[in-house]
Amino acid sequence: MIRAFAPAKINLTLHVTGQRADGYHLLDSLVVFADVGDVVTATEGRGLTLAVTGPEAGGVPEGESNSILQAARFLGVEDVAFALEKHLPTAAGIGGGTADAAAALQAAAQLRGVGVPADVLSLGADVPVCLRGHSARMSGIGEELADVDGLPDVWAVLVNPRVGVSTPEVFKRLQYKDNAPMPEDIPVFETVRNLAGWLADQRNDLEGAAIEDQPRVAEVLAALRRLKGQLLTRMSGSGATCFALFGDEQSAKDAAQVISAQHPDWWVRNTRLGRKNL
Q1: Is 265 a catalytic residue?
Q2: Which CATH code is given to the segment(s) 150-274?
Q3: Per-residue pLDDT at 278
Q4: pLDDT at residue 145 above 50?
Q5: Catalytic residue at 86?
């Protein structure tokens, strides 16, 4: 049995800098990974199968649209039994499906003793960065990656109000698609507070469009901004998951308890956002 961890991917920034003639949007994003995520395992089997368990199993798409099965077919493997222990909500802006696809590629490749192809962008824009599993600057349409090593470990609270947000719909609603990128150089940050201060001058350009599509995103952001000790609050990806950054573990734990008590129907996790969480 080969086991692969599929950590939540968090976009600390997400600048939309243009749109190509083929419709793909150009991005400039600072990506980090959480220590919460899904678990994918691969074993020898008969045919290509997938069993899904875990607290978020109910939201996983089945059949041909499942990202794990798509990844296996992309790799050209057969007779593999996959199991997915699902902990991340689906369609949540934290790379759940693409993280699962990346983990499936890694597990199946190790099981078969083959390499993972270099060009995996067709499986999803976030698959390359999820395969890397290291904090990175992601640009282009997701294929341009540069490791970022000057980030401190950060404690955060992740919140999803359990509403779906359609990524194509969010991009469709985006009014301005030719926005400024991040500064050319990302500095080395001595403290979490330094990082939060720099991030405050950056953006998630999809936030307004996501709120227009699903107003509960604004409710989540407001709830996070009221938390004691939060240093920065922002939406991740195309939503609906949002995050708040904290300077220490206990502050994040306390804040997660407050949000969970106020909104027991929301998905809430305190987590460490680090350079590498595979």
Answers
A1: no
A2: 3.30.70.890
A3: 45
A4: yes
A5: no
